[in-house]
Design a protein that fits this description.
The protein is mostly beta strands and 388 residues long. The protein contains 1 helix and 27 strands.
């Protein structure tokens, strides 16, 4: 009797093992199909979370992703930094209004060092950059100098690229560059901008696609080459624009001047600067030679009106189109030619609306886009699809 019982147990073991193997293969197949579906899906943004509604945010102007997708909100109206996890749960806060270290006057932007995890805060009202550990402990500050050519004046942005630190020194209409330790390195202003040998035509968004809400849908119309094809008094967003026109010649180097640089984005080869007054994105190579521009000023189609926050990821340039209370996204070729353009959101106070969003950022893994919806006193978190 012992032998049949042993054989029966073996059969049961093999049966259970087979079920486990089949389940594992099914899960792996599902994950592969799931991954391929979203990899091939049309570009879209889906709102997944609203942060800060119950935390009395007041005019949040900046937002940054840290490690583990923690979210740091620059709560400008309350002169503080508030830290949340990706699910929107409050973790901690620090800062009060003032001029001492650890205090803020109109903080506007934040970024996180991938290496150290430290948070760099643009303390605009105090014209300096302050550095903190993830727990809010003060580390250092820079940007204050007795040399008038090295001083920060109402800065609006800080970012890391090419082993340097870049600051949009908006109050002086220039870009300040620092070493990683905060030591001054170089200043790029109107007098130092040169036209590159490979300068291209001004790149405006194609105005022949439908505007979209942030509900996961995206424009499927293909844009023409990067021409200045958006008429200043164009058709409102959502209507067809007809045929595109040929791009004009690139601007002469002497004509390229910062009016109010407020945001910076980086790709491997190019630097993108949003100019609030010009209502354009200026494109430079890493040597700061002027290449061309993206977008045209206006309030129709994919035109830009007082752009503020910008970020580049996987061939897409995301723009907080502040003056229009929408997000405008450009799909780029070769770093500057616009292939497609998308609008997300509409002005308002509802769940899918914006009310003068100031800054945007993308998580380190490229999955999430965070928007500081300033006048709605909240931060919106979107899932990015189809951007690879």
């Amino acid at each position: 009797m012992a032998l049949p019982i042993k054989k029966e147990k073996l059969n049961k073991a093999f049966f259970l093992l087979s079920i486990i193997i089949i389940a594992i293969l099914a899960i792996l197949l599902f994950q592969k199909r799931f991954h391929l579906y979203f990899k091939k899906s049309p570009f879209s943004l889906k709102l997944v979370r609203i942060i800060g509604s119950a935390d009395k945010l007041k005019g949040p102007a900046g937002v940054a992703f840290g490690k583990r997708n923690n979210v740091y909100v620059v709560d400008s109206g309350n002169s503080r930094i508030v830290k949340f996890n990706i699910k929107g749960a409050y973790i901690r806060q620090w800062g009060i209004e003032g001029k001492a270290t650890g205090e803020f006057m109109v903080p506007l932007f934040a970024t996180v060092s991938e290496k150290s995890g430290n948070i760099y805060i643009v303390d605009s009202g105090n014209s300096r950059i302050q550095v903190f550990q993830p727990d809010g402990s003060f580390v250092s500050q820079f940007g204050i100098s007795k040399n008038s050519k090295r001083i920060l004046v109402e800065p609006t942005f800080i970012g890391f690229a090419y082993d340097k630190i870049y600051v949009a020194n908006s109050g002086s209409d220039n870009i300040m560059i620092y070493l990683k330790n905060g030591q001054f390195y170089e200043r790029k202003g109107n007098s130092s901008i040169q036209g590159g040998a490979g300068a291209v035509s001004s790149a405006a968004a194609p105005n022949n696609s439908n505007a979209n809400q942030p509900n996961g849908n995206s424009s499927n119309n293909t844009g023409a080459n990067a021409g200045n094809n958006s008429p200043k008094n164009g058709t409102p967003a959502g209507a067809s624009q007809g045929n595109n026109t040929t791009a004009p010649p690139a601007q002469a180097a002497s004509q390229v001047q910062f009016k109010k640089p407020v945001g910076i984005a980086f790709s491997k080869k190019y630097i993108y600067i949003s100019d609030y007054s010009l209502s354009e994105i200026l494109v430079f190579n890493r040597q700061f030679d002027y290449i061309g521009s993206i977008g045209t000023p206006g309030e129709a189609g994919y035109q830009l009106y007082h752009p503020v926050g910008i970020v580049y990821k996987n061939g897409y340039l995301y723009v907080a189109n502040y003056g229009r209370s929408i997000l405008t996204v450009f799909k780029l070729n070769n770093g500057y030619n616009v292939l497609k353009a998308y609008n997300f959101g509409t002005p308002g106070v509802g769940r899918d609306n914006f009310n003068h969003e100031s800054n945007i950022t993308i998580s380190l893994n490229g999955k999430y886009l965070a928007v500081a919806d300033t006048n709605n006193n909240r931060v919106l978190i979107y899932r990015i699809f189809g951007a690879k």
